[in-house]
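can u do me a favor
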């Protein structure tokens, strides 16, 4: 299992725009459709990655905890579905249903959105404040498949708490680690 780290987009970067098909609602959404009143978490995942499977329950808990506090959530898959058919839009819908997504799961067929975010791995997290400025990018927590560290979501939760409470977020952030995005 390859371990690819995040590229760590510079803090303060304005959220790159997108207009992508949501595999759940079958409609096209842009960043403004997904953003929250207090902030927005954009995260890159895919259906087959063991790193994503490892953290999925915690991602769902975080989304359920913070949506009601004004944080918008949107998942994006940018993998090449020609070579990785398990990441196809139809199977994205199934994955979202199985995992009880209450947020959009968008398909980035051109991979332009992943490139705009400088996304490198799955999962890869980008938290923007209410001004759409990047305040956190990096890991969910220190847990990885088979490392024995329990999931807590502590790094991401701490950053989201900062956004919700309008506090400064520690700029010392650890990159996420996961499977590389499957480029065309």
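np, heres the sequence
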């Amino acid at each position: 299992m390859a371990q690819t780290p995040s590229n760590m987009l510079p803090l303060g970067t304005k959220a790159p725009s997108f207009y992508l098909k949501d595999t759940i609602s079958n409609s096209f959404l842009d960043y403004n459709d997904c953003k929250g009143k207090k902030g927005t978490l954009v995260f890159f995942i895919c259906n087959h990655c063991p790193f994503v499977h490892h953290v999925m329950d915690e991602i769902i808990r975080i989304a359920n905890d913070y949506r009601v506090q004004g944080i918008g959530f949107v998942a994006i898959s940018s993998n090449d579905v020609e070579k990785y058919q398990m990441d196809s839009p139809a199977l994205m819908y199934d994955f979202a249903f199985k995992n009880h997504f209450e947020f959009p799961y968008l398909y980035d067929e051109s991979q332009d959105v992943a490139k705009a975010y400088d996304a490198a791995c799955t999962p890869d997290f980008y938290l923007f404040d209410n001004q759409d400025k990047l305040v956190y990018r990096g890991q969910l927590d220190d847990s990885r498949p088979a490392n024995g560290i329990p999931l807590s979501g502590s790094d991401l939760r701490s950053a989201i708490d900062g956004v919700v409470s309008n506090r400064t977020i520690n700029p010392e952030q650890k990159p996420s680690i996961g499977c590389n995005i499957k480029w065309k």
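The chain has five helices and ten strands. hope that helps!!
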